[in-house]
Every structure is written in structure tokens, then in C-alpha cells.
């Protein structure tokens, strides 16, 4: 009988990922995977109903690490989540990796929590422990380490000062805390950025 296995499955197995067929079978659990041959998922990763894994996504849990992704979350091309003895929890209806991908890495004992409706866009990263609240946003190639963004409404909320905290621009953000309704826009070190209310940057329509 002809061997119809995917030629890359041996490498997938050696690296601890599902086979291409097993990745495609995620659709039976309500996960959308348009191109399973380009997606890598570790067996223990938990994916909610309606999750979309676009081409080039990597979800890697190893050495006891855990990755949990909530319902309706979209992982765009270039998104990479790696839990190596750490924990990554992503809420529902989150958008990760549009406009350049996004990297999230939790090492030994590190915990990364991303709330419902958050947006992480533009080629940035989360490393060490971070807490990204409901509706919070990271917009741009920003390297975040030990940051906390307060939860609130999503970017669709009509009241800017009630939305989740926002980091916007490019550079490095270490131990930065942004409360609900606030934003720091910086280019370089975010420790030198100015904390402003979001209505200063995005005035309320009709206000």
C-alpha cells in the first residue's frame, strides 16, 4: 500500500507537535485551521470553540508548560506562543498577531494572562510574567516584560477612558503599568513615556 503520510510528520513528532492530519482534525473540535500543513500545535494545547489558527501559527507547550486559548480568538500569521514550564492563558475574542505577528513566551514559573477582547498587534512580544487585562491593547513592535495593562472595554467601546490600558509605538516596556482608560505612546524606552488618558489620544466621537 502506498504510504500517504505527510513527509513532515516525522519532524513534527520529533519536535513534539501534532501531525498535519491531527492538526487538520482540530476542526472537529470547532477550531478553524485553513492551512494545517503550516500550523504547529503541541498535543496538550487547549483551544476554545471558534478559535482561528491562520497560516504560520506556532503553539508550543513543553516541559510541563500550558497554553489555553479561549473561544473565538484569532491567531494571525506569525503568532508564536511558547510555554516552557510556564503558563499562557488567552481569553475569548482576542486578536493576536495582525500586522506583523506576535511572540508570547512563558518560561519556568512565569505566568502570562491575556483577558477577553484584548489586541496584540504589530510584531511585539510578551516575555517573563505579564497581565494584559480585558480589552487592553499592545499596538506596535513593543517588547513587554513584566507589564500590567488594566482591564476595561475593548477598542470598540465608545468611551475611550473606559477601555483597557494601551501601549502604543515601538521599543521596550519593562515593569510598566497602564491603568484602565490610559495609554502610553513611546518610541524607545516606555519608562520615559507619558501616561495619558485615552481621550487625549482618541477623543470621543461627538464629544
List the helices and strands and how they pair.
Elements: H1 9-15, H2 20-24, E1 40-41, E2 46-47, E3 52-53, E4 58-62, E5 66-69, E6 74-75, E7 79-84, E8 87-90, E9 95-96, E10 102-106, E11 111-114, E12 119-121, E13 125-127, E14 130-132, E15 137-139, E16 142-145, E17 148-149, E18 166-174, E19 177-178, E20 182-189, E21 195-197, H3 198-201
Parallel strand pairs: 1-4, 2-5, 3-6, 4-7, 5-8, 6-9, 7-10, 8-11, 9-12, 10-13, 11-14, 12-15, 13-16, 14-17, 15-18, 16-18, 17-19, 18-20
Antiparallel strand pairs: 20-21
Question: How is this structure best described in words?
Answer:
- By secondary structure, this protein is mainly beta.
- It has one domain (9-201): UDP N-Acetylglucosamine Acyltransferase, domain 1, CATH 2.160.10.10.
- The protein has helices at residues 9-15, 20-24, 198-201; strands at 40-41, 46-47, 52-53, 58-62, 66-69, 74-75, 79-84, 87-90, 95-96, 102-106, 111-114, 119-121, 125-127, 130-132, 137-139, 142-145, 148-149, 166-174, 177-178, 182-189, 195-197.
- The strands form two sheets. Strands 1, 3, 4, 6, 7, 9, 10, 12, 13, 15, 16, 18, 20 and 21 form a 14-stranded mixed β-sheet that branches. A seven-stranded parallel β-sheet has the order 2-5-8-11-14-17-19, with no helix packed on it.
- β20 and β21 (195-197) form a beta hairpin.
- The radius of gyration is 18 Å and the shape is elongated.
- The chain starts with 8 loop residues before the first helix and ends in a 6-residue tail after the last helix.
Number of strands: 21
Rg for CA atoms: 18 Å
The CATH homologous superfamily name equals Hexapeptide repeat proteins
The helix-strand sequence is HHEEEEEEEEEEEEEEEEEEEEEH
What is the CATH first-level class name? Mainly Beta
Structural class given helices, strands, pairing? Answer: mainly beta
The tally of helices reads 3
Largest sheet: 14 strands, mixed
Distance between the termini: 71 Å
Proportion in helices: under 10%
Number of domain modules: 1
Overall mean confidence score, pLDDT: 94
Amino acid at each position: 500500500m502506498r504510504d500517504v503520510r505527510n513527509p513532515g510528520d516525522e519532524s513534527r513528532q520529533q519536535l513534539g507537535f501534532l501531525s498535519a492530519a491531527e492538526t487538520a482534525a482540530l476542526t472537529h473540535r470547532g477550531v478553524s485551521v485553513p492551512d494545517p500543513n503550516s500550523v504547529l500545535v503541541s498535543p496538550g494545547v487547549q483551544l476554545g470553540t471558534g478559535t482561528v489558527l491562520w497560516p504560520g501559527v506556532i503553539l508550543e507547550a513543553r516541559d510541563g508548560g500550558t497554553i489555553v486559548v479561549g473561544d473565538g480568538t484569532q491567531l494571525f500569521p506569525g503568532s508564536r506562543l511558547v510555554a516552557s514550564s510556564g503558563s499562557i492563558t488567552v481569553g475569548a475574542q482576542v486578536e493576536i498577531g495582525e500586522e506583523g505577528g506576535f511572540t508570547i513566551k512563558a518560561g519556568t514559573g512565569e505566568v502570562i494572562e491575556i483577558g477577553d477582547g484584548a489586541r496584540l498587534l504589530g510584531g511585539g512580544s510578551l516575555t517573563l510574567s505579564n497581565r494584559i487585562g480585558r480589552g487592553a491593547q499592545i499596538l506596535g513592535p513593543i517588547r513587554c516584560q513584566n507589564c500590567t495593562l488594566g482591564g476595561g472595554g475593548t477598542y470598540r467601546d465608545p468611551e475611550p477612558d473606559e477601555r483597557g490600558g494601551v501601549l502604543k509605538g515601538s521599543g521596550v516596556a519593562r515593569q510598566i503599568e497602564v491603568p484602565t482608560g490610559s495609554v502610553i505612546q513611546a518610541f524607545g524606552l516606555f519608562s520615559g513615556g507619558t501616561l495619558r488618558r485615552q481621550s487625549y489620544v482618541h477623543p470621543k466621537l461627538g464629544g
